[in-house]
Amino acid sequence: MITFYHAPNSRSGTVAIAIEEMGLSGEIETKIVSVPRQDGSGGPDAANPHPEKKVPALEVDGTLVTERAAILALLSELFPEAPTAIPPGHPDRGPFLMWLAYYAGVVEPLIMGMVCEVSDSPIWITTYRDMAAMAERMESALADRDYLLESGFSAADLIMASPYMWKRDWLPKVPVIEAWFERVKGRPAVQAVAMRDNP
């Protein structure tokens, strides 16, 4: 049995969209939980098994997995035949894992550094690179394709696009990246989850 713990309009939206894209709504039970919000609303939910009461969390036969990158990679392993799955053995598996790790280790810290106004610090740049380097890397990957992977759309696109769903102004002002974001944002699964999360 697989249970997904989701809080609408939170980071777990990336996993909710991936589940929709992969056609797994019938295979995975979704439980809505509350989480503490920046505006002071919400709060820890006793029904949420995440050790920090955050989302996303995925329970697979009693084993708990947290963190978006890990959950997205695991879903592709558990459901290798699902649409957009990039399972072990797939030619794009390495690049897929690279983008998931790049998001968690570089992109999110870069954006948080920008929001906290510390991203121009030499230590920050040395550790996480900078926004221009990130944009260059994305632009290069998208130069001859619609999505980040040669095989097409995947959860790598979802996680890389996720911060810009919250604030479009953060998106690098590069035509090929802006066009990619519009393609990701316009996907039916993205729209379906947005409708469910905001009835």
From TrEMBL:
<dbReference type="InterPro" id="IPR036249">
    <property type="entry name" value="Thioredoxin-like_sf"/>
</dbReference>
<dbReference type="Pfam" id="PF13417">
    <property type="entry name" value="GST_N_3"/>
</dbReference>
<feature type="domain" description="GST N-terminal">
    <location>
        <begin position="1"/>
        <end position="83"/>
    </location>
</feature>
<dbReference type="InterPro" id="IPR036282">
    <property type="entry name" value="Glutathione-S-Trfase_C_sf"/>
</dbReference>
<dbReference type="GO" id="GO:0016740">
    <property type="term" value="F:transferase activity"/>
</dbReference>
<dbReference type="InterPro" id="IPR004045">
    <property type="entry name" value="Glutathione_S-Trfase_N"/>
</dbReference>
<protein>
    <submittedName>
        <fullName>Glutathione S-transferase</fullName>
    </submittedName>
</protein>
<keyword id="KW-0808">Transferase</keyword>
